[in-house]
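Tokens as discussed.
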């Protein structure tokens, strides 16, 4: 039985949303000079601590390491959730300055997710295998 197209597309749409959210965090919260000046003062808003934690995260490559751990988990377990998590953390790491490890985790997670989706449905080889068992004398 083949999964529905929406069920197959859902992880990819969610991955797109993660990429958009990561880009918004990068450009609106981290790279914004106005927010940087606001948070550098002693009387910054409450969320400046969260911004500082995000900055420390990419300075110490936390996002890239987390993405690579999820990628290894995706390869070892063979489940969809770690594969998607590796791809999502890879996208997040790419957006937050961890391009090398993030790109590798995105690649591993995406390929693993594609393989798991292909295994869930009938592959083209299995679909046509029954018709190819008979030998025909004439085409």
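Sequence:
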């Amino acid at each position: 039985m083949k999964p529905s197209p929406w069920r197959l597309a859902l992880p990819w749409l969610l991955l797109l949303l993660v990429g958009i959210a990561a880009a918004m965090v990068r450009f609106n919260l981290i790279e914004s000079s106005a927010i940087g000046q606001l948070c550098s003062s002693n009387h910054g808003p409450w969320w400046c601590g969260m911004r500082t934690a995000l900055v420390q995260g990419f300075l110490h490559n936390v996002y890239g390491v987390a993405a690579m751990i999820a990628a290894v988990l995706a390869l070892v377990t063979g489940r969809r959730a770690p594969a998607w998590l590796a791809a999502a953390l890879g996208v997040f790491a790419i957006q937050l300055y961890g391009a090398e490890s993030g790109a590798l985790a995105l690649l591993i997670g995406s390929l693993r997710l594609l393989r798991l989706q292909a295994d869930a449905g009938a592959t083209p080889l299995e679909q046509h295998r029954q018709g190819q068992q008979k030998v025909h004398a004439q085409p």
